[in-house]
Amino acid sequence: MTETSAPEHITDPDEPAGEFDLSDPAFITDPEAGERWLGGPRPVCKGKFADGSDVWVATGYQDVRAVLSEPTFRSRPPGDSHRESMLSRGIPEDIVDMFDSTLLTMDGDDHMRVRRLVTRALSARRMLTLTPAVTAMAHRLLDDLADKPEPDLIADYAHPLAINVICEMLGVDEHYREQWREWSETLAQALRPNPEQFAPAVRGMARVTKELVEARKAEPRDDLISELVQVHEEDSDRLTDDELVALAMVLVQAGHETVRNLIALGVFTLLQHPDQLKLLKDDPSIAGRAVAELVRHTAPVKHTFRRFATEPVEIGGVTVQPGEAVQVVLAAANRDPAEFGCPADLDVTREHNPHLGFGRGAHYCLGASLALIEGEVALTALFERFPEVRLAADPAEIAPRYLLAMQRLPVHLSPETDER
């Protein structure tokens, strides 16, 4: 494996910070490179985006928080479009405009107009009412695990729980869900996409979402897509055709990918920290704090979309000029020793935990409350049902790479002595 440009910890403040290179394949796949960055320098430094373009990279907590919160930074680049970047990464030209109409790429009034349409449906209070249904779904999946000699907790638990919860809420028919999983795995490789797989996956996802929207126009149901269709039918100025399809698509994609990663990383990390797992088993009432700490420590989402300065602004000792991009690294900000005591340590009892795992500001994750509920339910149900669960593979072989999600999590559900 080639050496990445991620620098070792810098002790001399005058020493150059190096580059954070998202286009370097070794950096994407090398866990040691990620760890060096998490424990490395905090100044804003120069870097490269996945397409090779220049960015400023913010890794310190206060710098990341400022970029996410300040209105001087926006999601859209100069020219008011992500079109060129999306085309370069394999999104087909005939649907790129739709992909440029998502909440993730909107700013200002347009962003708030669309965001308000789903904020109420995904409110923390409403999400709490889903807890019994999420719990029942988790236990059904655990029932199925009991008959498997070596279940994969990603394929058999984390993924089906995450995809079924968000699809039930939105109204995605069951026969689409397995196909969506395959598309999601392809899109998860967006930092280094395979052109032969990426474009068909994007097209398929767009096609199915349009089919769902048309089906709900013809026959509304009690689901979120039907609610959005009704808003569109009543007033297309509030939600255009492209925005409707893009919003439904992003909610499905983002609503399960992050949760899948949170559950998988949570289980893997707790099994690597038996002292912390024991604390959770002994006192399930700390599950909320434990999941928040796992979000901070494992970083299911490593970084956000780039932000672009609209005027000269000083961040971390450098002046970002209008039009220049800043890449914030949530994973590094959440390990900043200036904000968190013993940041490299997993502490499921941590009380002061203002992590940025779900972002901040106008683009704060809409599904944060649901993700936390799913994570809490998934972990507590698993360890209550199978308290002796343990890994069935060498941790080094299945450990997540820095910017790639875990692919498998094989386990034994019973103690080793029971298998002899």
Structure description:
It is globular and about 60 Å long. It has 420 residues and is an alpha+beta fold. The protein has one domain (20-419): Cytochrome p450 (Orthogonal Bundle). Mean pLDDT is 84; it is low at 1-17. It is 49% helix and 7% strand. It has helices spanning 25-29, 31-38, 61-69, 83-88, 96-99, 108-119, 124-128, 131-145, 154-170, 177-187, 195-218, 224-234, 241-272, 274-282, 287-298, 330-333, 368-385, 395-398, and strands spanning 20-21, 45-48, 54-58, 73-74, 307-309, 313-315, 318-320, 325-328, 390-391, 411-412.
Overall number of domains:
1
Strand residues, percent: 5-15%
Structural class: alpha+beta
The chain-level mean pLDDT equals 84
Count the helices. How many? Answer: 18
Please describe the biggest sheet, giving its number of strands, its sense, and whether it closes into a barrel: 6 strands, mixed
Indicate the low-confidence ranges by residue numbers: 1-17
The CATH topology: Cytochrome p450
CATH superfamily: Cytochrome P450
Please write the CATH class name: Mainly Alpha
Distance linking N and C termini: 39 Å
User: Residue share in helices?
Assistant: 40-55%
* Largest sheet: spatial strand order: 1-2-3-8-5-4
Radius of gyration: 21 Å
Spell out the helices and strands N to C: EHHEEHEHHHHHHHHHHHHEEEEHHEHE
Shape: globular
Number of strands: 10
CATH architecture: Orthogonal Bundle
